[in-house]
Amino acid sequence: MAFPKNRMRRLRSNPAMRRLVCQTSLSVDDLVYPLFVREGKGLKEPIKSMTDCYHFSPDTIAAEAAEVASLGIPAVLLFGLPGKKDDIGSQAWAEDGVVQRSIKEIKKSSPELLVITDICLCAYTEHGHCGVIKDGKIDNDATCELLAKVALSHAQAGADVVAPSDMMDGRVKYIREALEENGFENVAIMSYAAKYASAFYGPFRDAAESAPSFGDRRTYQMDPVNCDQAMAEIALDIEEGADIVMVKPALAYLDIICRARQRFDCPLAAYNVSGEYMMLNSAADAGLLDREATMLEMLTAIKRAGADIIITYFAKEAAKQL
Ligand code: PBG
Fold it and tell me: Tell me, what's the pLDDT at 76?
């Protein structure tokens, strides 16, 4: 139907009409809020590279988690900064590690809040790589064994969901087996299935003190030029036992989210990463963008592309707006 029979503006003519034809609605139910916990006591230290984000300690994390829960946000994603690092990242699976203690504190005070934990070694190793190093290279299978230990220790502490972010091959299989063998068959795996070697992680690496001391992450994270590989990565992770798959980053990878949505039936998460968060914050601080409106537009775009779950540092602010 051509003009003037068809006038697209009729469908935009007033707020009620716009509500009626609205195809994408962002909800607080979609959000996951990342939290950083470090060794120490009584901490709530602002993270310099990330506006309104803090380093908590295991004794202060529960209060923050309770606030997140009170906003109606269903889940937090925990990142740990250990007291000491070593070659293999052994604090990552320590029974009394920062994340393990934090999970227990959160579960005690906010049992209804889902606790998702990041499973990776980069914040725990002296060299800052996501795996163990043998002859100058990241050893895939040896890393998977350690990641399974980390996931199991988080499950033992009470985590609901474990989220491997390392990009080793086969790690979902190792983790799924370890969980099954030890009676944690109900712990879900949210795999960072299509995680790209992205420059958008910069502010996070300051926050998590996890920048690699040599080289980069291109031998394990995906090359940003590729898209078919992302589908292969996701298919493999589902096959190995992932319950939720993730595309990361989100905004520069909306095409990947869209393709994954069309192809796979399982819940799809997208990580609105630190660089995306700080681009908006910096532009808003400079008076160039309206922070709230732009935030909601960004999150809506991620949802419209096909994500069911959005992991974002904006979660608390968005929850207040929605
Ligand atoms: C650790 C990890 C990273 C992020 C989440 N988990 C950094 C990296 O891979 O270097 C980035 C999150 C963000 O930028 O917000 N493997």
Answer: 98
Select which of 85, 107, 248, 303 is catalytic: 248
* Residues lower than pLDDT 70 in the chain: none
Q: Could you tell me the residue ranges of all domains in the chain?
A: 25-321
pTM, two decimals, is 0.97
Answer whether 240 contacts ligand 1 (Cβ < 6 A).
no
Residue 204: CB within 6 Å of ligand 1? yes
- Residue 1 confidence (pLDDT): 85
Q: Name the residue of 118, 146, 204, 221 to mutate for ligand 1: max ligand atoms within 8 A of Cβ.
A: 204
Tell which one of 50, 210, 219 to mutate to probe ligand 1, the residue whose CB is within 8 A of the most ligand atoms: 210
**Residues in contact with 83: Cβ distance below 8 Å, sequence separation at least 6, in sequence order:** 39, 91, 98
- Catalytic residue at 195? yes
Residue nearest to atom 11 of ligand 1 (CA): 201
* CATH topology (fold) of 25-321: TIM Barrel (3.20.20)
